[in-house]
Amino acid sequence: MGAFIGIDLGTTNSLVAYIDDTGRPMIIANNEGQNMTPSCVTKDGNKIIVGEFARKAWGIDEETAAAQFKGDMGTSQTHSFDGQEFTPTELSTFVLKKLMDTATDQVGDISGAVVTIPANFGHEAREATMAAAKAAGLNIEHIINEPTAAALYYAFKNGEELSGTYAVYDLGGGTFDVTIMRINGQDIDILASEGVKTLGGSNFDKKLHDIVKGKHADATGEEMDDKDFKEDFSLIDAEEEKKSLSSRSKTLARVGRQHIDITREEFESAIKELVEQATMTCEGVIAEAGVELSDIQGVFLAGGSTRIPLVQESVKQVFQQEPIVQVNVDEVVALGAALYAAYKGDRTELSPVQQQAIEKIEVLESTAMCFGTISIGEDETDGDLGLRNSVIIKKGTKIPANVTEPFYTIFDDQPRIDCTVTESKKEETDPRFVKIIWEGELELPPDRPAGQEIQVTYSFDDNQIMHCSFLDVASGNETTIDLSLAGGGPTGDDDDEGGDGPTDDGINQFLVD
What we know:
Layout: E1 3-8, E2 13-19, E3 25-27, E4 37-38, E5 40-44, E6 47-50, H1 52-60, E7 66-67, E8 79-81, E9 84-86, H2 88-107, E10 110-117, H3 123-135, E11 140-145, H4 146-158, E12 163-171, E13 176-184, E14 187-196, H5 201-220, H6 226-232, H7 235-244, E15 250-255, E16 258-263, H8 264-289, E17 296-302, H9 309-319, H10 332-344, H11 352-358, E18 362-364, E19 370-378, E20 385-393, E21 401-409, E22 416-424, E23 435-443, E24 453-460, E25 466-472, E26 478-483, E27 510-512
Helix pairs in contact: 2-3, 4-10, 5-7, 5-8, 8-9
């Protein structure tokens, strides 16, 4: 029997865990003896290097290595070093391959794997993550949202003790997520999730780096550009001083032969607006979940940046209670992912003890986005016909889900339908404010009157990947798209809001019933 592993593919650090012989999830240390592997990539000759060596190289000169590429997953952004360009998916593949090799060396063959993603990842980023996992050689069929994985481990650790509504506040190296869920023992039902795609420890490191750079200029009268200054005080140095300020009121940063005092108060003032972004996101997700603050019985922390005192204080203020820290916040996501890998995997590959450990687990995820299509409809204000986005699967729908909606042709002898799949964070009717993640056509038979029914079916699997069908009921003509690794990939940049939008050519649209 092979091992089931869970991988937390992080912005700054990544981890891998497995289910041991006793049914408990355990972190697997890399060949340097560290539980966390920096999500950094460089080259040594023709050899790709992942981990601490690459991290140190990037900290001094960002042109010699790649880091913090997770936030670019699913976009056309590339990262260059050593005269080569790499996509975020390729770089993530290198990191995942390193973690897979680590797991194989330590625990043997891999029967199944799960990779985590931020809850706020859109469809394109989810696809890119699965593509990276496949390219790394992982036997992956499932992904899981990071806050859900964290909650799963907290629930597992507490056994039958958890019952009620809880929140997971997940602030890592580069992304922030907050999720409201109901937990009953080891059953998890996701009510609402929201996040900020680029908010985390790397942003805090940059703020501290800027403080030191400014103080150094004031003390010496010497203005240095970022590249030169990083040779004396890198972003890695800034990260270490940031960690010191989590336990001390001040720290001493060394820049060349200079020593510069940095106080926690100065650091907190610099990051205050960033932390407030997370606070506002929390307030929004509580309202979206339809719960009162008094309903939330506990707030679980995940991600290394939750160690920052200002962050913990903000959690306390917004949820009006002390957050729960029962585990290593760096490891909780990977540990939960390992549990999920066993939960979703082939149970015959588990020993009786392992089967018993996960038999009480149940996870009910929900969609993190709205999905719709572009149609012709009446304007809500003046009643005129025009393009509109019709939401078919709403955000927060329990998955897996399958929804069919009827639409109708609007012209006699209409030759075809423009088929679109849209994504948005909220129920948006204006096509200008949604992202088109796929476009295609449905050919129609000739010589037919208007009003022919077109059934649009969206199914959403438990990896939160879309599968879509546009069916002409009378003729049986159908256009389908599997928006996963095997399907035609979506186009466009990974913006949270807006897209290219459709053109109103009239003839190729269809009318909402």
